[in-house]
Amino acid sequence: MLKIDISAIEKSKIDAIIPEIKSAHEKLTKKTGAGNDFLGWVDLPVNYDKAEFARVKAAAAAIQKQSQVLLVIGIGGSYLGSRAVIEALKGSFYNLKKKNTPDVLFVGNNLSASYVEDIISLIDGRDFSINVISKSGTTTEPAVAFRVFKQLIEERYGKEEAKKRIFATTDKARGALKKLCDQEGYETFVIPDDVGGRYSVYTPVGLLPIAVAGIDIDAMLAGAGEMREICSLPDIKNPAWQYVAARNILYREGKTTEVLATYDPDYVFLAEWFKQLYGESEGKENKGIFPAAISLTADLHSMGQYMQEGKRCLMETVLLIGEPTGAVTVPNDPDNADGLNFLSGKSFFEIEKQACRGTYLAHTDGGVPNLLLTMEKKDERCLGGLLYFFEFACGLSGYTLGVNPFDQPGVEAYKKNMFALLGKPGFEEEGKKLEARLK
Ligand code: PA5
C-alpha cells in the first residue's frame, strides 16, 4: 500500500536511533506516554461506534437528498481532514464539477468578513444544510460563523425545518455547542473524549462531510485498519519507524524544516492537514521540526529557488500518490514556435514524472535530503491508510522528540490576548495592558 525510501540516510545512523523509536513505539502502543488519555485514534479504524457510524451514513444520505450545499463550520482539526480527503479524491474543483452530490463549503476557519460574505452569496437560492463541528464547543471562529449561518438557515426555512438541516459534531457532554444541541434538538455526533481534534478524521468530524461528498467511508476505514496493522509492527521494517527515524536523524543534523512536496493541486489540503498535525503535535518546548509544504511543479517557480540554494535547514518528503488519471497530451505545433515539439504527443504525466525525477536530483545535489513516500493508488482505501500512517508516525515522532504529541498549550496565548482586546468580561485589566503595548 505504502512504500518509503529513506536511502538518503546512512544505515548506521538508522541503527543508532532504533532504540529510541522502539521506546516511543512502546509508549504509543502500550499507552504509557504523555498524553496517553488521547490515544483513542490508534484503534479507531477497528474500534469505533458502529451505531454512530450508521447514523453518519444516514445523515449524509439525508443531506444529499435535501441540499445542494453542505456548509462545514469548523477550524483546525475540525475541518482540515475532511477538506483534505474531499479535495484529494474528488479534486480541488469538486464544487465546480457536475455531480449528484452536494457542494461542500468550509467556513468558520478564519475571521475574514469577506470570506463569510462570499459563502453567503454562494448559498443564495440554493438549498443547504450545516454541519457545525467543534470538540470544545467554544472555539471563537466556528462559533461566530455558526451564529451567522444559524440565523440565516432559520430565516430561510423557519426554526423547525432548520433543526432538520443542522447537524452538530461535538463533545458528548461538555461545551456551549453541546448545550445548544440539547436545547434545540439538532442531530448530534460525538467526538470521543480520547481523540484530539487533529487526530479526528476517522470520527464523524471527518466522516460526515466526506460521506456527503460521496466518498466511500467504509473503504477509508478499511484502509486505515490495514495501515494500523502495518504500523503496529515493532520493527524498522515498519514504514512509520523508517519515516520517524529519517526525519529525526535529519532534524538533529540541523534540518529543522520538513517540506512536504506533492505533485497535484488536489493535494494542497492534504499538505495543510499534515502541517497542522505535525505542527501542533511537535512544536513545543522550543523544539520540533517545522512542517512546511510545496505544491509542485507550481512552487518550483516560487519556492524552488529557496529549496535549491537557500539556508540549508531543509529536508524534503516527496509524496507520490498512485498512477495519473488524466490523459491529456501535448499537441504538435507545425511552427514549433516555442521549440517544444520534442514534447509533442507526450502526456502531461510523462513530463511531470521527469520534472519530479529531475527535481529530486537537483534538490538532493543542492543539499536537501529527500525522503520518498509512494502510495499505491489514489482511492479511499489508500488515502485512509495514508492518513493513518501520518497520524501514527506523528505520535511516534513526538515521543522520539521528547514532547507530548497530543496537547496544544501554545494555541491559548493568542486567544487570551484576542479576548482581552475584544473586552471579554474578566479580561479588562489585561486588555488595558495589551492596548498600552500596542500603542
Ligand atoms: O487539533 C486540535 O485540537 C485543534 O486544532 C482543534 O481541532 C481546533 O483548535 C478546533 O477546536 P474545536 O474542535 O474544539 O473547535
Bound molecules: 5-phosphoarabinonic acid
Kindly state the number of beta strands: 10
General shape: globular
Mean pLDDT across the residues is: 97
Secondary-structure element string:
EHHEHEHEHHEHEHHHEHEHEHEHHH
Primary descriptors:
439 residues, binds 5-phosphoarabinonic acid, five-stranded mixed sheet, single chain, 16 helices, five-stranded parallel sheet, alpha/beta
Description:
The protein has 439 residues and is of the alpha/beta class. The protein is 48% helix and 13% strand. It has 16 helices and 10 strands. It has a 5-stranded mixed β-sheet with strand order 1-10-9-7-8, sandwiched between helices. A 5-stranded parallel β-sheet has the order 3-2-4-5-6, with helices on both faces. Helix 3 packs antiparallel against helix 11. The longest helix has 22 residues, at 380-401. The N and C termini lie far apart (56 Å). The mean pLDDT is 97. The structure holds 5-phosphoarabinonic acid. 5-phosphoarabinonic acid binds at residues 75-78, 134-136, 139, 142, 196-198, 280, 408. The site of 5-phosphoarabinonic acid has 14 residues, from loops.
Outline of the structure:
The strands form 2 sheets. The chain has a 5-stranded mixed β-sheet, sandwiched between helices. α3 packs antiparallel against α11 (about 270-280), α5 packs across α6 and α9 (about 215-230) packs parallel to α14. β5, α7 and β6 (about 185-190) form a beta-alpha-beta unit.
Topology:
Elements: E1 2-5, H1 11-29, H2 50-66, E2 69-73, H3 80-90, E3 103-107, H4 113-122, E4 128-134, H5 140-157, H6 159-165, E5 166-170, H7 176-184, E6 187-190, H8 204-212, H9 217-231, H10 239-252, E7 257-262, H11 268-282, E8 290-295, H12 304-309, E9 314-321, H13 348-365, E10 370-375, H14 380-401, H15 412-421, H16 428-438
Parallel strand pairs: 2-3, 2-4, 4-5, 5-6, 7-8, 7-9, 9-10
Antiparallel strand pairs: 1-10
Helix pairs in contact: 1-10, 1-14, 2-8, 3-8, 3-11, 5-6, 9-14, 10-14, 11-14, 15-16
The chain binds 5-phosphoarabinonic acid.
